[in-house]
């Protein structure tokens, strides 16, 4: 059904990496949200007037706030679709994340206001007038909100939008809140319990929790987060498809908004390769990444020894020793220089953020370990910090 709707309103609807197409999805989501939330606001406000229930009236104004959030989403997508310029060379894509954060903050504000009103109702309870029309209006609202949640979640997954996912969470929260209000009204009607204020508090707490979770999800890409495991595997597969490249490390994915990505990595190549030929291979790999992932790509070339048995043997031994310290640790850029008094083993170690040892302690442990192989060994180590997920993805 979502695909059928997209076909009607969005030209080239399948080209979701195109900023212009993403913008149209944002417009579709925003306009749908504005229209339906305004209708729900009018209906619930009528129900609130008929019953005098603070929980119903508060729920109505929550929908009015949702209409405002839809406007924020709509404006955010339009601004995010602007092309790069002199002041913003990487485009304006992160505005979409900011729009999602504003939606989350709106959810939190509504939750705080509803909690305050509901607590006041607990202190000064009033009898609620029962109306089956109001119950019917609220039940219809639940159905509409569940559909909106499904609609925005499907769109968010299809185009990879945290803003739409936040809107989806908001809609599901509203459906749950309104369902709770209906239960409260029915309990109050069929018993002597005046639960309106308590129901309002329960709704408010649920809305606050939903707003917090939505804000967390939209803050992650703004603050910076590791790439998804599936993306890392696809990048590795694309680069290692060139036989001259024997390994990659130091992969970084810079996210400047959906569809605006920069990839940088180090590619390991044999030091015996012709520099001009291997440069052409790296250029081809960069162009391949750009074409496949719609990104800018920069690959740094790292020449390594691949045909010296002594170096290869020492590399394997050092890699095994490092894993004794912690199975998650890996090494790369290994070189060995032999002198009259000592042998330098030069390499980088990938360790996770929050590792139990400081960088200095880890380096000291590695130096002690390599000396157990030979007293002449001296480790020259640099520590690279990566996310635990990236280390798991790099594990054989």
Describe the protein's architecture and organization.
The chain has 396 residues and is of the alpha/beta class. It has 3 domains: 2-223, Cation efflux protein transmembrane domain (Alpha-lytic protease prodomain-like), CATH 1.20.1510.10; 226-306, Cation efflux protein, cytoplasmic domain (Alpha-Beta Plaits, 2-Layer Sandwich); 308-396, 2-Layer Sandwich (Alpha-Beta Plaits), CATH 3.30.70. It contains 12 helices and 6 strands. The strands form 2 sheets. The protein has a 3-stranded mixed β-sheet with strand order 1-2-3, covered by helices on one side. Strand 5 (343-352), helix 11 (359-371) and strand 6 (377-386) form a beta-alpha-beta unit. The protein is elongated, with a radius of gyration of 29 Å. The two termini are 41 Å apart. The mean pLDDT is 82.
SSE topology sketch:
Layout: H1 2-9, H2 19-51, H3 54-80, H4 95-123, H5 132-159, H6 162-190, H7 196-223, H8 229-240, E1 245-255, E2 261-270, H9 275-293, E3 295-304, H10 309-325, E4 330-338, E5 343-352, H11 359-371, E6 377-386, H12 388-394
């Amino acid at each position: 059904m979502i695909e059928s709707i997209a076909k009607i309103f969005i030209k080239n609807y399948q080209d979701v990496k195109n900023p212009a197409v993403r913008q149209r999805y944002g417009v579709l989501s925003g306009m749908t949200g504005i229209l339906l939330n305004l209708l729900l606001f009018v209906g619930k406000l009528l129900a609130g007037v008929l019953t005098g229930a603070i929980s119903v009236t508060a729920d109505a104004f929550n929908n009015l706030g949702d209409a405002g959030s839809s406007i924020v989403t709509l404006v955010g997508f339009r601004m995010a679709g602007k092309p790069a310029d002199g002041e913003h060379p990487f485009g304006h894509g992160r505005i979409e994340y900011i729009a999602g954060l504003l939606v989350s903050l709106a959810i939190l504000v509504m939750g705080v206001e509803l909690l305050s009103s509901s607590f006041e109702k607990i202190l000064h309870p009033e009898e609620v007038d029962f109306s089956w029309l109001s119950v019917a209006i609220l039940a219809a609202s639940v159905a509409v909100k569940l559909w909106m949640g499904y609609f925005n979640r499907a769109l968010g997954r299809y185009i990879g939008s945290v803003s739409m996912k936040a809107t989806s969470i908001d809609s599901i929260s509203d459906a749950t809140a309104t369902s709770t209000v209906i239960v409260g009204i029915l309990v109050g009607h069929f018993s002597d319990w005046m639960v309106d204020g308590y129901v309002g508090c329960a709704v408010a707490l649920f809305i606050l929790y939903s707003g917090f979770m939505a804000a967390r999800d939209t803050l992650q890409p703004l603050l910076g987060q590791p790439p998804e495991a599936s993306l890392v595997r696809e990048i590795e597969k694309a680069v290692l498809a060139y036989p001259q490249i024997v390994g990659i490390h130091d992969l970084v994915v810079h996210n400047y908004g959906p569809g605006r990505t920069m990839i940088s990595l180090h590619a390991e190549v044999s030091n015996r390769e012709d520099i001009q030929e291997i440069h052409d291979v790296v250029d081809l790999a960069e162009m391949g990444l750009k074409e496949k992932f719609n990104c800018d790509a920069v690959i740094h070339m790292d020449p390594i020894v691949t045909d010296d048995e002594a170096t290869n043997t020492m590399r394997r031994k050092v890699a095994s020793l490092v894993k004794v310290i912690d199975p998650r640790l890996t090494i790369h850029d290994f070189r060995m220089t032999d002198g009259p008094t000592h042998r330098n083993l030069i390499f980088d170690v990938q360790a996770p953020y929050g590792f139990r040892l400081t960088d200095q302690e880890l380096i000291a442990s590695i130096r002690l370990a390599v000396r157990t192989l030979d007293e002449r060994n001296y480790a020259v180590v640099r520590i690279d910090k990566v996310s635990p997920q990236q280390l798991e993805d790099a594990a054989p």
